[in-house]
Amino acid sequence: MKVKSIALTKKLTKGRYTASAVVTVVDQTGNSIGGVTVNGAFSGAVSGARSGPTGTSGKNLGIVTLTSSTFTANSSVTFTITSLSKSGYTYNAANNVVTSVTIP
């Protein structure tokens, strides 16, 4: 399995920002995989590890959204995948289409 995409955005609410990384996970043939634990870390304007499972059905199949804690500085944020895990699957980061994304 591998990371197909990471969409990273920032949102401002009441003077504080959060960053959200929408991660899509697929198998080696490109099929979405549900129930994969995605582990990643935010750095830059905010730091911290986050993890969660990819969706198991419908439009959320193979997709998880990981959200940072709040921060006040409107500066760059990076999200980096640290690992993927699911029983019966092998993860090799070298196969990822993308592993890390930065936004200003």
Descriptive terms for the model:
mainly beta, 4-stranded antiparallel β-sheet, 0% helix
Can you lay out the helices and strands and say which pair or pack?
Elements: E1 2-13, E2 16-26, E3 37-44, E4 48-53, E5 63-67, E6 77-85, E7 100-103
| Largest sheet composition | 4 strands, antiparallel
Termini separation comes to 29 Å
Task: State the share of residues found in helices, binned by percent.
Answer: under 10%
Helical segment count = 0
Structure in words:
By secondary structure, the protein is mainly β. The protein has one domain. 0% of the residues lie in helices and 53% in strands. The protein is built from no helices and 7 strands. The radius of gyration is 14 Å and the shape is elongated.
